[in-house]
Amino acid sequence: MPTIAIAGAGPGLGLSIAKVFGGHGYDVALISRSKDKLDALVAELAETGITAEGFAADVGDPAQLTSALQSAIARFGKIDVLEFSPHAGLTMTVPKDVTLDTLRPQIDSLLYGAVAAVQAVLPGMLEAQSGTVLFTTGGGAIDPYPMLADANIAQAGQRNWALNLHNTLAEQGIYVANVAINLMIGAQAPEGVPHRAPDQIALDYWNLHTSRDQAEYFIGA
After folding, report:
1. How far apart are CA 44 and CA 61, in angstroms?
2. Which of 48, 91, 123, 167 has the greatest number of CB atoms lying within 10 Å of its CB?
3. Which CATH number fits domain 3-215: 3.40.50.720, 3.30.310.260, 3.40.50.2300, 3.90.76.10?
4. What angle do the packed helices 62-76 and 113-128 form, to 10 degrees?
């Protein structure tokens, strides 16, 4: 069975992606900090016949994240798809107020976490000459939002690296893409707020994985 690892899994988009890939025959490795949350997600997936297991780790701690992914590889044999979408919190920081202290949590989770995750799964993908890595960022990675300067910096770095990986790994059978989500994720939203349900967005991830023809996919209003 192929396996997808979802780093930063939660009850919204992460669970929806797990259901879509699991519905296509994938086993699912879920990674987040809360074991209780992971147990609940695993139980919900089991109700639909999807084999899943949770691996508790702080995505902002490279050693923890690497260990979790190594445990997932030991459990399932290999990771065929990595989806990376941790939530580091949205601190409201305008560009002039960015400091090392405000930026560090975003860099640790979104950029260093992405590097650690890829380094954990890439050797197996290269050996198999096959694999998919899907990064998730906000729209501010492309067109910055002044009030989210910290997140924008980290996500822009993640996006840049994703595009570089796409351009340099394709010939070795590895597909990498960045998904920039520029709206609220949810089935409902306040009036006038652009949004899409996570189950709908998750289908886009499956389509990217199967078509393998875009370095970047933008989801907006």
Report:
1. 27
2. 91
3. 3.40.50.720
4. 30
pLDDT interval class at 196 (50, 70, 90): confident
Query: For the chain, first and last CA: distance in Å?
Result: 36
3-state secondary structure 37-81: HHHHHHHHHHCCCCCEEEEECCCCCHHHHHHHHHHHHHHHCCCCE
Domain boundaries, the chain: 3-215
Decide: 177 and 216 in contact? Cβ < 8 Å. Answer: yes
pLDDT, one tens digit per residue, over 158-174 is 999 999 999 999 999 99
Q: Which two tokens stand for residue 163?
A: 């595009």
Cα separation, 26 vs 8, in Å, equals 18
In the numeric block, the tokens 């070795």 are attached to: 172
pTM: 0.95
Q: Distance of alpha carbon 14 from its chain centroid, rounded?
A: 8
- Supply the Cα-derived Rg of the chain in whole angstroms: 16
Summarize pLDDT for 75-128 with one digit per residue, the tens: 999 999 999 999 766 788 999 999 999 999 999 999 999 999 999 999 999 999
d(CA 9, CA 110): 14
